[in-house]
Amino acid sequence: MYPVLAQFGPVTIGTHDVFTILGLAVGMAIYFRALRRDRMLGPHILLISLSAVVGGVVGARLLTSWEILGDVQAAGLPVTYLLTHGPKSILGALVGGWIAIAVSKRALGYTESTGDYYAVAIPLGLAIGRLGCFLSELPLGTPTGLPWGMTVSPEAAAAFSHCPGCAGPMHPSMLYEIGFLLAAAALIWRRGPLLPVRGDTVRAFLLAYGLFRFGIEFIRGNEVQWFGLTGPQLVLIPLIGFLVVHFVRRLAGGIYRLPQPTPAGAEVSQ
Questions:
Q1: Is residue 223 part of a domain?
Q2: Which residue has the higher pLDDT, 104 or 136?
């Protein structure tokens, strides 16, 4: 694999970092373009977007940092070490960004719903970031006997302290995820908002992605934490539950129910 994209003397450019930044830049460009098209781009949006980026960066570091908190404390390192060297999580970035958007909107008194403008930007940006994961991280997934299982060289595996399954073919789990994300982005791009309530299209994507990610974790190769589940799966349970409750309440309230057509020949009251 290729964890280092380029080396210039003492400066190392990491593959994962480059693709993460590229994914963020592409996602924000799509988001701003959509807002400009609808004449909604203004100072408030710029501040909210900056808050989303900061929240995403912090969330990416912190949401699953509890997995190594014991190691950090045992090494006598400060907890702030997690902010600079903790594991980076796509789920953490989504949660952190979402919270930052909600808080900044409330602080600015901004009430317009802008979530659906992220509906294409998020999956496309995530797909680009996941490509960086595929190029730079091991293991690719759990061992598999399927014909598309991928192997890596012993030299590449030796660069990682923990690489179960790297001795044989592995599920290319990141490629599965990239395929899902690109399909979701293409569907939303072609169809536009999938649900009539503003903000619910992006929530529907997040629910679908959460369910997909929960399932893919069984062949992802991440370490099992509790109850036979990985860290990302444990984080996903409350997030999926929150979104399920949201849509159940929408359906129970008849929000998505289409109005009944007026029968032919019926008089219209004045």
A1: no
A2: 104
